[in-house]
Amino acid sequence: MKYESFQFETSFGVSAQLNPSEMPEIVFAGRSNVGKSSLLNRLLGRKNLARVSSVPGKTATINFFKGDGVRFVDLPGYGYAKISQSEKKRWAELMEYYFTSGRDIRLVVQLTDMRHPITLDDRNMLDFLEQRQIPYLVVMTKSDKLNKTETAKRMAQIGEELDGFHPLAVVAFSALKGTGVPELKEAIEKAI
């Protein structure tokens, strides 16, 4: 796959705006500030294709990137407490509609922050994916923030945290160092 061929296509903030799905989609999901935009930029070999923000909860739309016969879909981050109830409700409705509207979702790349245990919001998302039988893998971002001993410890802990869940794989990832990029690309290409 030619990752460098991907371009930003469009964004949607409400379900009524979503176009029908006519090609396979790889979805990127996770909490606010987990590093979805940084992961996408590293994966696609760009610095600013997906906008990176230092303010959690900034991505309020579903962003579509198109290239090489597939779409990458950047979902709004969840779990940010400092947004209004009406905004949380809008995001929830948008996500529900996205996942139940018959789209050709091949894989969800579920991001978690490697430095911390998975959260209740993460577990709720994993439950949702399991119930819908949507294939997913767990990518633990910001692995460069931990040393080798801490990384090994977290990789052991995540196995316990994911007890009862069935990800296709668990990948340690660093946007800074490129750790995990080959494994992620392999999983995406298998899914397509």
Structural features, described:
The protein has 192 residues and is an alpha/beta fold. The chain has a single domain, classed as Rossmann fold (3-Layer(aba) Sandwich). 32% of the residues lie in helices and 21% in strands. It contains 5 helices and 7 strands; from the N terminus they run ββαββαβαβαβα. The protein has helices at residues 36-43, 85-100, 120-132, 148-161, 181-191, and strands at residues 7-12, 25-30, 62-67, 70-74, 105-113, 136-141, 170-172. It has a 7-stranded mixed sheet with strand order 1-3-4-2-5-6-7, sandwiched between helices. The termini are close together. The model is unreliable at 53-58 (pLDDT under 50).
List keywords for this structure.
single chain, 192 residues, alpha/beta, Rossmann fold, seven-stranded mixed beta sheet, 5 helices, 7 strands
